[in-house]
Write a structure and sequence with these properties.
By secondary structure, the protein is mainly α. It contains 17 helices and no strands.
Length: 393
């Protein structure tokens, strides 16, 4: 009789992890740790040279380093997938139903406003620092859902759905903030060209063109125009995604097919590469005084205190006033735990920090310290609260 292969419990757990929502979050944690180790070891010089060594003069083409290609080029794909998710949710998802979207939209708005106010209360007296007010306003979907994935069935499905919807609305708000507040030196000619390309993409949609290649070419042209227009190039990804038709003429789901084809590349290549290129910050000589400097303190407090205060208070007030009820089957301790997880701001927060202080490398590093510390503390507290809440239940 042939011997059966022995599969250890560890192998079972690893296989389950690779298939779960938790893997993307665990991967981001690993990437952040790797970046920090690289930036604080003998590899620091090679790490910074890898991403910041110029490939050609900026006058030849503005994207002349690996860091710029990742942040302005590869991240356009990240925002394209965000745009696809947003359109699907608005048309056929949770945001298409007025009753279902009321609470997530209100919670996301409060979860952006309160952290920004906390940031400004701590660092707003200095005009240079005040530009970073939006850094703690964003929630990282992959990271937050990864922590939820680690908790398994301890979190009610309604609460998972609520967190996902809040994070998507949060992304919409972050995109609008980037488009409005973090642009520089608008170039009318390139902006007009971008509008003409966008009009062409809309015409393709209205004409019910259901082949992908015209939209791909149009999206690339739009990205190039927006890159040179003074608006951040990644906005082109969101706008182009909104023009993708929901269905082909034969009824086949087109937008969802594109989203499914790209979501893995986004989660396992684009975002980890961005995290590795941006999370590395030198900690030598930092000390307690460095951690409590106005900028990292403002970012960390905005994520840990502002996020939970804004979202939890909004849910409590909405239920008290009869506007909306908290997610079905969730108790208030679990709602608090999810509010804490919304303070994980890794990807979008790092991205906004780069835009807020483009000429101040030291301030970007300070903001990164606040982002990493605040996100880690929010993740640990949220996990602990949800774990304890499930035991009490």
């Amino acid at each position: 009789m042939p011997r059966q292969p022995i599969i250890t419990p560890l192998a079972h757990r690893l296989k389950g992890l690779l298939r779960s929502d938790a893997f993307a979050g665990v991967l981001l944690i690993a990437v952040a740790i790797a970046a920090m180790l690289a930036a604080n070891s003998d590899m620091a010089g090679a790490y910074h040279a890898l991403f910041h060594t110029p490939w050609w003069p900026s006058s030849t083409f503005s994207l002349n380093t690996g860091h710029l290609w990742i942040n302005d080029g590869l991240m356009a794909l990240f925002f394209f997938v965000v745009g696809l998710e947003v359109k699907r949710e608005l048309v056929v998802g949770n945001l298409s139903d007025a009753k279902q979207r009321t609470l997530p939209v209100l919670a996301a708005a409060a979860g952006m406003a309160v952290p920004a106010l906390v940031f400004l209360a701590i660092a707003g007296s200095e005009p240079v620092l005040a530009r970073g007010w939006a850094i703690p306003a964003a929630t990282d979907i992959a990271f937050a859902m990864g922590v939820i994935g680690l908790l398994g069935r301890r979190v009610p499905p309604s609460l998972r759905l609520f967190l996902l919807t809040v994070a998507i609305v949060d992304d919409i708000g972050a995109v609008l903030v980037i488009a409005v507040f973090y642009n520089s030196g608008l170039q009318p000619g390139w902006l007009l060209a971008a509008l003409l390309v966008l009009a062409g993409l809309i015409a393709l949609n209205r004409g019910r063109v259901d082949r992908l290649w015209p939209y791909v070419l149009g999206a690339l042209a739009l990205w190039l125009c927006v890159l040179n227009s003074g608006i951040h190039a990644t906005i082109a990804g969101v706008v182009a995604a909104l023009t993708i038709p929901m269905q082909r003429r034969n009824g086949e789901a087109l937008l969802e097919h594109v989203e499914h084809a790209l979501v893995g590349w986004n989660a396992y290549l684009v975002v980890p590469m961005f995290g590795f290129a941006n999370a590395g910050v030198a900690l030598a000589g930092l000390g307690i005084a460095g951690l409590l400097a106005p900028l990292p303190l403002a970012v960390g407090a905005g994520l840990v205190l502002g996020k939970q205060a804004g979202i939890f208070t909004c849910i409590a007030v909405a239920e008290r006033l009869g506007i909306a009820r908290r997610p079905e089957g969730a108790n208030w301790v679990q709602v608090w735990g999810v509010s804490l997880l919304c303070g994980i701001g890794f990807t979008m927060s790092l991205f906004i920090a780069e835009l807020a202080y483009p000429q101040h490398r030291a301030l970007i590093d300070q903001a990164k310290i606040g982002i990493l510390a605040g996100s880690l503390l929010s993740a640990l507290l949220g996990y602990a609260v949800l774990r304890l809440a499930s035991k009490r239940s």
